[in-house]
Structure formats: structure tokens, C-alpha cells
Design brief:
With about 450 residues, this protein is of the alpha+beta class. Helices cover about 55% and strands about 15% of the residues. The chain has ten helices and ten strands. Strands 2-1-4-3 form a four-stranded antiparallel β-sheet. It has a four-stranded antiparallel β-sheet with strand order 7-8-10-9, covered by helices on one side. Helix 1 packs antiparallel against helix 4.
């Protein structure tokens, strides 16, 4: 509506300018003077000829009166022609003044055509100048309007497109519904929002896949370790049984087939152990590569019965080296899956690095349920205790044992996400790991 109004005003101004120019160009300036006024002035002069000093002009004409010798007897204003020659040059009207039937003097009527023309020019110039000033002001206003309503929105969209192309989808495009591109900018911002949503969904999907790979990779290590441990037991039993057969005599001859079978079984167990180690190495490499790309693993704690902890501990201690601790009646705030991973990591570490029986105690500690897991392996150097929960860090006594140094790191992360904690210290007999699980209803 505003732009239509401005265009209408500009059109009117342009039309007025053309009209003034055409009017000034087509209008002819007449050099004719009013004959009636001239006759009235001539008649009045002839009546007053004998006493021109008292003569007064009764018309709107400007004129000068000369006597027979060319002297000026009367003039209506200064600057008029005072001789016949000046009157001829100026194209004034020259009339004879009669007195007693004889020519007594001359009446020189001033020709104001040039002044009228100059006055018209001045009026036209003033009108055109005023119209041009108005038109200039309107053009300035229209330029400002175009800059604010068209150029500035386009510049904003240009900057917005540059940000989107650079991957910045967080800054929205400011929308002004009053300019010409209000709906257009709204569509651009909707596009930005959809792109951001799609990118977030893609990132979440990639993170979910990486988390799944990391979780499965780490969880596979536990059953593989169990398979390896069972194979080692089987290989040891097969070797011991083979050593029990006599080496000479009739008995040795009679049991050769059984001895051969035991040796074959032992070789199969060793093959299983080698393959388990190979799988463990590959899974460790996969888990490490995936973990480095992950920002975090999802932990979703919720209320769970304290008795569920008994089943978690039993599943984690698959070799049965720990004692059955009594779990008090309580309500825990934890993620069952992540809590299972925490205890799996602790027991597996004890199996690998200590190889002893494990003492488990459960107690209340303020707003937490504390689970103490202590082995009898002598512990680690005191200076290394703070480093055990860091990524890829292990004690110096574990140099000859296969491992990635991620179990306690992940366990510590999981417990902190569940508002709990893990404490690692040297106990009386070996390394003691205390898992603090938040009791439900307690503000951490």
C-alpha cells in the first residue's frame, strides 16, 4: 500500500511538471495594450494639459507625457521612456496629444510585455523548483523505503544463506511480517529449522550406532573371557589326564588310543584359547576406535529394587570366586544395564590382574549403598591409584596382561551419570573397589 501511494505521488508531480512546461511553452505573450485604458489616459491628459502639475493617473497604465519640445511634463514612475527614440526602442505606444486642434505633445505608454514575461518565467521556475524539491524528497523516501523493505531483507537472507552453507544452523533468520519478503524469510527459517532437525537426527543416529557398537564390543569381551577361561581349564585337565597314563608296558599299549584322544582334546582347547585371544584383540581394537568417536554413552537411571543387585553380582562373578553378600532391603536409583557393566568390569579386572578369591561386602554409607569388592592380589602402587580411572591407563603390574585400560574409566563414567561414584584404594589384602549406588529418594 505504501509503495502504491509513493508511486502515485511521483506520477502526480511528474504530470504537474509537464503541465507547467507545456503551459509556459504554448502560452503566447501578447504585446497588445488595453485600448480603453489608453483612450481614458489620453482624454484625461488632454483635459489637464494646461495644468499638468496637478494631473493624476486614473488608470493602471504606466506612461510619460512630453511637451512639443520633448521635455517630460509627467510620468507615473521612474524608469520610463523619456524620449521618442527610447520609446521606439522599448516598443512603447506613442500617441499625439492635441490641444486646440494642434499637436501639443506626446503620450508614451509603457510596454510591460517583457516584465510580464519575466514574471511568468519566475513563477514557472518557482513552481518547477518546488515540484522538483517535492519529487526529490519523495525519491529519497522511496529509496529509504526500498533499502529497508527490499535491499536490507535481501542482505539478511544473503548472510543467512552464508551461515547455513557454513553449517551454522543455530541462528534463526529474523522475520518481519511487514516487509515484502516476510513470508519468504519465514520459509527460509523453516528450511533452516528442518535442516537442523535433520542434522540432529543424523547425529543422534550415528551416536546411537557408535554406542551400540561400543556396548556390544565391550560386552562381548566378558563371554569371550569366560570361554577362554573354560578352555584353559579344559586344556589343563586334558594335560593332567594325559600325564597320568604309563609311558611303557602293556598298559601303555592298551591306553594309547585314549591318550591320543586326550592330546587331541588338549590341542582343541588350545585352539579355542588362541581364537578367543584373537577375538578379544579384534573386539578391543573395535571398541577403542568407536569409543574415541563417542561423546558419551547414554545412561538412564531409574528406581530399582535392592535385591536386583544380588542377581547383578552373581552374573558378574561368573567364575564364582566371590562370596554371597547380604543385600539390605532398599530402593536404588540406577541404570540396571550400566550397573551390570560396572560390576562386570570390576570382576573381570580382578580375574585378570589378581586371580585370587574375592571378598564382597554390602553396607549403607549415608545416602548410598556401598559395595566393597576386594581381592587378595596385593594391590597396586599408591601413586598409580588416581590414574586407574583414566582412559587407557593401567597399573605397572598389568604390563604383561592383555587389556585396554577402559573398564574402570567406563565404570566411573557410568556411576557419575547415575549420581554415584567409584572409589579405588588398597585394602588390607589387595585392591579394593567401592561402588557407591545412590539410594532412591536421596538428593545427591
Amino acid at each position: 500500500m505504501k509503495k502504491h501511494f509513493i508511486l502515485i505521488i511521483l506520477t502526480i508531480c511528474l504530470g504537474a511538471e509537464l503541465a507547467v512546461l507545456l503551459l509556459f511553452a504554448l502560452r503566447g505573450v501578447s504585446a497588445r495594450q488595453d485600448a480603453v485604458e489608453i483612450n481614458e489616459a489620453l482624454h484625461a491628459i488632454q483635459e489637464d494639459w494646461g495644468h499638468m502639475e496637478t494631473h493624476r493617473s486614473s488608470t493602471a497604465l504606466d506612461y510619460a507625457v512630453l511637451d512639443g519640445e520633448g521635455h517630460v511634463l509627467f510620468r507615473t514612475k521612474p524608469g520610463l521612456s523619456e524620449s521618442i527614440n527610447q520609446a521606439v526602442v522599448h516598443r512603447d505606444t506613442i500617441l499625439d496629444i492635441y490641444d486646440g486642434g494642434c499637436i501639443a505633445g506626446k503620450l508614451l505608454v509603457y510596454n510591460d510585455t517583457e516584465e510580464t514575461l519575466m514574471s511568468g518565467r519566475r513563477t514557472a521556475a518557482f513552481g518547477l523548483g518546488l515540484l522538483m524539491i517535492v519529487q526529490t524528497c519523495i525519491c529519497i523516501c522511496f529509496t529509504v523505503y526500498l533499502e529497508r523493505m527490499i535491499i536490507r531483507p535481501f542482505q539478511k537472507m544473503k548472510d543467512f544463506a552464508r551461515r547455513v552453507a557454513g553449517g551454522n544452523l543455530d541462528i534463526p533468520l529474523e522475520m518481519d511480517r511487514h516487509n515484502l519478503f516476510g513470508a519468504f524469510t519465514e520459509s527460509f527459517d523453516l528450511m533452516r529449522a528442518e535442516l537442523k532437525k535433520a542434522r540432529r537426527a543424523e547425529a543422534e543416529a550415528n551416536a546411537a550406532k557408535k554406542e551400540l557398537v561400543a556396548k556390544l564390543s565391550h560386552d562381548i569381551k566378558t563371554p569371550v573371557a569366560s570361554i577362554q577361561a573354560a578352555a584353559e581349564v579344559g586344556a589343563a585337565l586334558a594335560e593332567r589326564a594325559g600325564e597320568g597314563y604309563p609311558q611303557t608296558g602293556r598298559a601303555a599299549s592298551g591306553s594309547s588310543e585314549q591318550k591320543t584322544a586326550l592330546e587331541g582334546s588338549r590341542e582343541n582347547y588350545l585352539q579355542i584359547i588362541r581364537k578367543a585371544e584373537q577375538i578379544n584383540t579384534l573386539v578391543s581394537n573395535l571398541f577403542t576406535a568407536t569409543l574415541e568417536e563417542l561423546e558419551q554413552l547414554t545412561v538412564m537411571p531409574a528406581d530399582m529394587e535392592g535385591q536386583e543387585l544380588e542377581e547383578i553380582l552373581k552374573d558378574a562373578d561368573y567364575l564364582g570366586r566371590g562370596n554371597a553378600a547380604r543385600i539390605p532391603d532398599c530402593l536404588l536409583y540406577a541404570d540396571r544395564l550400566r550397573l551390570q557393566q560396572v560390576f562386570d568390569n570390576i570382576f573381570v579386572n580382578s580375574y585378570k590382574y589378581a586371580g585370587t578369591r574375592i571378598h564382597v561386602t554390602v553396607r549403607r554409607a549415608g545416602g548410598y549403598l556401598a559395595v566393597d569388592i576386594e581381592d587378595f592380589g596385593g594391590g597396586v602402587d599408591g601413586d598409580e591409584l588416581p590414574l586407574l580411572k583414566e582412559k587407557f591407563r593401567r597399573g605397572s603390574n598389568a604390563a604383561k596382561t592383555e587389556g585396554a585400560g577402559l573398564g574402570l574409566y567406563l565404570s566411573d563414567y557410568f556411576m557419575k551419570e547415575m549420581q554415584g561414584d567409584i572409589l579405588v584404594e588398597n585394602g588390607e589384602q589387595g585392591l579394593r573397589v567401592t561402588v557407591l549406588i545412590l539410594l532412591s529418594g536421596v538428593v545427591a
